[in-house]
Specification:
The chain is mostly helical. 55% of the residues lie in helices and 6% in strands. Strands 1-2 form a two-stranded antiparallel sheet.
């Protein structure tokens, strides 16, 4: 935004001294928003926000359970909790992959999205990925293996 002073003196204090009745400025031009700056949230962004807001806490719960018990989340009724756990890992890997792809093509990460939620989900997904690598690494180092995605008979976890 450009402002035009109504005073011709070089400094504001001199302007007020010489012209005390002219203490306001007028707007002569305003920047217009370009089409590149207009943010429209598409279906992909909305799904990424919703999926990420659900997946990141589920992964936190899963990693805590894995670290404290040596097993992932229990299958739950009809396998629903186990399925949610597996899908959550896929969602986080998908968001991080989308972010890395966007970063390689545009030089910046994902757009902030409405209320900054997509940017927050992107950041949480990177943190979850780091936590996954740390906890899986510790689990493999201490136990020698990771629990399988599907319980098998005789397995220490839900088998």
């Amino acid at each position: 935004m450009l402002l035009r002073s109504l005073c011709s003196t070089p400094t504001i204090s001199q302007c007020y001294l010489h012209h005390p009745h002219r203490r306001h400025a007028t707007v002569i031009s305003m920047a217009k928003q370009t089409d590149d700056q207009v943010s429209t949230t598409g279906v992909t962004e909305t799904l990424a926000i919703a999926g990420g807001l659900i997946a990141n806490p589920v992964i936190g719960w899963s990693l805590y359970t894995l670290k404290t018990t040596g097993c992932g989340l229990p299958p739950g009724p009809g396998g629903s909790i186990g399925a949610l756990e597996g899908v959550s890992y896929l969602v986080v890997v998908g968001i991080v992959g989308w972010s890395l792809y966007t970063k390689s093509k545009t030089g910046s990460g994902l757009p902030n999205g409405p209320f900054g939620l997509l940017g927050a989900v992107e950041g949480l997904s990177y943190l979850s990925l780091v936590a996954i690598l740390v906890v899986f690494g510790l689990q493999f180092y201490q136990q020698g293996s990771l629990p399988g995605p599907v319980p098998v008979p005789g397995d220490q976890c839900f088998g």
